[in-house]
User: What shape does this take?
Amino acid sequence: EVQLVESGGGLVQPGGSLRLSCAASGFTVSHNYMSWVRQAPGKGLEWVSIIFSGGDSFYADSVKGRFTLSRQNFDNTLDLQMNSLRPEDTAVYYCVRAYCSSAGCYPWYFDLWGQGTLVTVSS
Amino acid sequence: QSALTQPPSASGSPGQSVTISCTGTTSGDYKYVSWYQQHPGKVPRLIIFEVSKRPSGVPDRFSGSYSGNTASLTVSGLRAEDEAAYYCFSYIGNNEGVFGGGTKLTVL
Assistant: This one.
């Protein structure tokens, strides 16, 4: 079955760190464009970061310099290392795969979403 | 920083059509617009990509268009199950993307 399963969320104090993981099954992470999207409680969606199939990663201004996106080809997972966390980082974090068709893959269209993992930054 | 503006709410009666707009606040190329549907407590679903294309399985009641700096999503033949939040998203250059604030669609 093609799916994404996130883990690693929880409660962390402001200034703390957390590492989210995303396990993919049914496809190969390194062959796809992968992103993280977050949603604060009761709020809208916010794009956080993307990693291209070539390995380069990019970030929203709101997390640049604090978050690092990486992937582990040996176990087909994606990790989001989050440092210097702030209360405004509180959200459900979704791992997302970009859409691919017979015409190719489109890095900025998100067609497969995990169920999300909740990160709460609070003292 | 570019942003995408959506109306917070929209509504229509069953069978009617409703259009949701998504306006870029800066001039630019917004042709890489996609739309997502999210029911309460559920994961978002891609319904439109590249302005007007539908992934397999999305009904043709959903259509997208683009003019100037505004993308639009039209839902025709409204059904009760279309009641959801709808988000536009666009690549804005410099390897970054942005979501609109979302529109809650109510089927009356």
Q: What stands out?
A: Chain B has a mean pLDDT of 92. Chain B has no helices and ten strands.
